[in-house]
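seq as requested:
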Amino acid sequence: MKAKVVEDADVVTYVVVCDPGDEAFSSLVQFARSEKLEAAQITAVGAFQRATVGWFDPAAKQYRRIPVDQQCELLSLVGDVADSDDGPVVHAHVVLGLPDGTTRGGHFLEGWVYPTLEAVVTETPAHLRKVLRPDIGIALIDLDQSEP
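struct tokens:
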């Protein structure tokens, strides 16, 4: 994985490029932690050898894993980064294009890059905080604990 700042002002924009064989989700988490991101948006395109998306099951309070065990295009990745007790948390959703033109989508759990993943990460000067919501089962941005 490589990263570069392409703008440096109140809003900082990075370009993150993953190499073939990188696991994209953990690479984005690693990047967010190395830069100590507290509030950012992520968009990306690329492709995966295989990937796993998730569908949040409210009754079980967990994600159902949906494996995509074939080469697929990353048509869209949209997400955010917010701070938590454990450091920066990446939350992203993806749409994957399959060879027959159909799509799979959901919460991004993992993706094994081939040939590339090209992400734009835009950090804002705000501080966003994710807090576990036991009633729902996941951590969500808590605006009462976030700062502009």
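The helical segments are 24-34.
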